[in-house]
Amino acid sequence: MRITDQLIDQAFADLKATCGGVRNDYFAVLYLKYEHDVTRDDAVEQVAFGGNDYGVDAFHFDKTKRNLYLFQFKYSESHQTFKDSFKRLIDAGMQHIFDATKQDQQHNQLIQQIKSCVTDNTAIIDRVMIHFVFLGDPQTAEDSPVLDKLREDLENKKYLVENALGRAVPLIIEFRSAKTKKVGGAVHVRKSFAYPLHITDPMSRSGPTDERLHVGFVRLIDLHAMFLDMGQRFFERNIRASLPAESAVNRSLERAFRRIILDERESPHVFAFNHNGVTLSAEALKQTDTGWRITEPRLLNGAQTVTTFGRFLKANEGNPRLAEHKEAIESLAVLCRVLTGASPEFVTSVTVNNNRQNWVKPWNLRANDMIQLELQEKFRDDVNLYYERQEKAFENLSDEELEEMGVVPGKAIELFKLGQTFLVVDGLIDKLNRYREVFEDDKVYESVFSEARKKADSRKIVMCYKTERRLKQFVRDILEMGQNQYDFVKRARNLLWGLICQGILNDPKLEQRSVQWGTTLSVESDFVDWLSGIATTRVRFILKDLIQDKQFAGKVAEGRFDFLRTNAAYKRAMEFAYKRFRWVERGLK
Q1: Domains of the chain: which residue ranges?
Q2: pTM of the model
Q3: Separation between Cα atoms, residue 210 and residue 548, nearest integer Å
């Protein structure tokens, strides 16, 4: 039976006096009743009314199927409404439900009921099912990069389920539509990734809350085994895809492996002295009778070492010297830091700061921020374009893989250039001269890549973004109007870019232009002609007014045009733009 607004309103009217809560809580009651054949009286005992739900709105244990169901409900067609629920479940919900040592007096009574259900039925729970139920299309949720990342984080909590039940059981996560009865195309049956880990000379220290940092030396062969089993999942928290084999770093590593393993010119014990070390995050690291065991490891830095070691072993697998020098291979160790008990945000912070100590472009350190994931989803959904937040990620994808993602093969929007686009449209010209600081200063970064960007029209962003690729031509077009008169334009590239973008955003036919040119990264000839017209018939006169303005007359007389790279010049230019063409400052927000 389909759940309608009328049914929800009726249930709300019937039960509000005794159950409380808000209207949407009764969506859960009806879903349990009609989808799981639970009586209404029993359903109200299995639903959270009010707050402090830790990401779980309801539960149900089916003794016949031996399934424990945990539910999150959204009476909405938007899959994006699940984001905060995922976070609550990841940050605390799973631990409060499945870890008997974690208590909270303020939590919803439902959490205690689930804990009791788990305790009473430990021996007969064969599967734990987490269902995210809404009114939309489950496939859109499956395709969301944001929810995919959050689902990975949630799946990493499977070890808590297994610890509580004392054995391995499947953790199955599904998106379901209460309107169409559809289920997401990919059913995620999650296994836990846990491995033995040899650690020598271990030590540890506590973090500001529940975090713990373990430090010791680990075998490279152990890290290689994790990578072989987990694949790219092992690197999912890294800031970029692995660099090509011919990069300088990887060539140096390969030479070191050859000297130590094949040529026997160096002791394997030297490797740890010459290597900066690696950092892992993990859900748990426990000492056992035979050593250590690590659960759900993720490599935060050190991807080049692990991938190059794997390529070296693969390239030499037929070489008898590899087998002869097995002891040397097993003696290769690196200094390793393992972070446990940390939130995803804390792990991201550690990743950024670890990689700052090596030479890494600062924008690469932000690749896994939630706003970057949300922008990736935004561009895919709005204009079918790939957003390359991780360096080198786009070039590693085939046309077939891009099509499966729902994006157009060809070119990608790059994180580096997108940030510049936001700056020029906002008139923050001077920050382009100190671009690294945008990514190194948290406050500046959060203002440039703000939550408001998610609401901007992606087509307008694309038009402003790809304008940069023809700036040299627009400079030439203006110079053709008078080489000596406009020679200064060569020194005003970013100001020119920003003003042309304002010309785009102030165009009376903007909607029509957006449909025509805002869904592709191709720089069409008619698009270039339109922009050239803005540059030569609008921006040229604005810049001429700026150069003749008494505020900058002294600098112009001295031949100093550095002021053209300042915010003040942009602001003054927009005043002239308003006087001449009634342009107002419009943003990408």
Answers
A1: 5-190, 194-360, 366-581
A2: 0.69
A3: 62
